Amino acid sequence: MAPKEAAAGGPSPEFQDAAKAELLRQGAEAAEQAKAKAEEMGNEMLKYIEQGPGGIRVLAAIASMVSIVKAGLDVFGNVLSLKVVTLIICLYQIIFGFTTLLLEAPAEWWEESGSALDGIKRKISKYTDLLEVQAKFLLRMEGRGAFIFFQGTLWLAVMTGITDIITLAVGAFQIFLGILYGWMASGRDAAGCISVAKSGIQKAGAAAKGQYQAVDGAKAPAGP
To answer: Terminus of the chain with fewer CB atoms < 10 Å: N or C?
Structure first.
């Protein structure tokens, strides 16, 4: 039978110890789940990295879509809270993410959309033509890598704290992709990228586990 709370003066020491033990147990389970999820996602990433530059470009396109969605949601939240600086950065992230998506998305993605989006495709074509003239650095792999890396640093700059895990994940993923772009642009092969990626995935899994442990440990009630 679980220890009963004291009739007066708050919970008994036995009750506090039992509650703390239960929170720590739940925290350990959440940490293991976070580590397993990070490793599962990492293994999926490796499949694309093994494909070389083409696979990395697909990852960059996916990261851009995630960044656009997050920035759009954050715009709504920051309008309500009147956080002007963060709002402006989120608007930038929408534009930057859309630009990266146009540059990195496989041609098949646009072809599968059919003729329904022909008008939008023409506007997109004009925008990409403009980029080729006004932003020539985006035509080079190292330039696009630096651009994606920059977007990642912007997300880290607007983090509300170490517990802002979603912003941290999006920013860290984009920074990681920017580094991979630089790696590939230097002429190194995919095998080296995979080695770097595996190391990063292992660290991400350990960091996710440690983060959950830290958060749940902080929530645990203090002893008597």
So the answer is: N
Cα separation, 122 vs 186, in Å, equals 34
CA atoms of 179 and 195, how far apart (whole Å) = 13
Q: What is the pTM of this model?
A: 0.64
Contact criterion met (CB below 8 Å) for 42 and 208: no
List all residues 6 or more positions away from 108 whose beta carbon is below 8 Å from its beta carbon: none
CA–CA separation, 183 and 24 (whole Å): 41
The 10s digit of each residue's pLDDT in 97-145 is 999 998 888 777 766 666 656 677 778 788 888 888 888 888 888 899 9
Which one-letter amino acid corresponds to residue 102? L
Domain ranges of the chain: 50-219
H/E stretch holding 112 reads: none
Q: Does the structure show a pLDDT above 80 at 148?
A: yes
| Cα–Cα distance for residue pair 15/3, rounded to 1 Å | 5
- The tokens describing 196, both together, are 């770097």
H-only helix segments in the chain: 13-49, 53-81, 84-104, 107-111, 118-134, 141-157, 165-185, 190-219
pLDDT digits (tens, 9 = 90+) for 3-26: 444 445 556 777 667 767 776 666
- The DSSP line for 16-53 is HHHHHHHHHHHHHHHHHHHHHHHHHHHHHHHHHHTTTH
Judged against a pLDDT cut of 90, whether residue 218 lies above it is answered with no
